[in-house]
Amino acid sequence: MRAGPSQEEIRRQNLGALLRYVHVHGATSRTELTTALGLNRSTIGALTADLAAAGLVTEGAPRETGRAGRPSLVVRPESERVYAYALSIEVDRLRAGRVGLGGKLLDQREMRRPHAVSIAETAPLLAAVVKEMQESVPDGSVYVGGGVAVCGMVRREDGMVRLSPNSGWLDEPLGEVLRGQLGGDRPLAVGNVADLSALAEHTRGVAVGCDNLIYVYGDVGIGAGIIAGGRPVTGHGGYGGEVGHMVVHPNGRPCGCGSRGCWETEIGEHALLRAAGRERLLGPDAVLAVVDAAGRGDASAQTAVRQVGEWLGFGVANLVNIFNPEMVIFGGTLRHVYLASAAQLRSRLNAMALAACREHVRLRTPKLGNDAALLGAAELAFEQLLSDPLDAAP
Amino acid sequence: MRAGPSQEEIRRQNLGALLRYVHVHGATSRTELTTALGLNRSTIGALTADLAAAGLVTEGAPRETGRAGRPSLVVRPESERVYAYALSIEVDRLRAGRVGLGGKLLDQREMRRPHAVSIAETAPLLAAVVKEMQESVPDGSVYVGGGVAVCGMVRREDGMVRLSPNSGWLDEPLGEVLRGQLGGDRPLAVGNVADLSALAEHTRGVAVGCDNLIYVYGDVGIGAGIIAGGRPVTGHGGYGGEVGHMVVHPNGRPCGCGSRGCWETEIGEHALLRAAGRERLLGPDAVLAVVDAAGRGDASAQTAVRQVGEWLGFGVANLVNIFNPEMVIFGGTLRHVYLASAAQLRSRLNAMALAACREHVRLRTPKLGNDAALLGAAELAFEQLLSDPLDAAP
Question: Structurally, how many domains does chain A consist of?
Answer without folding.
Answer: 3
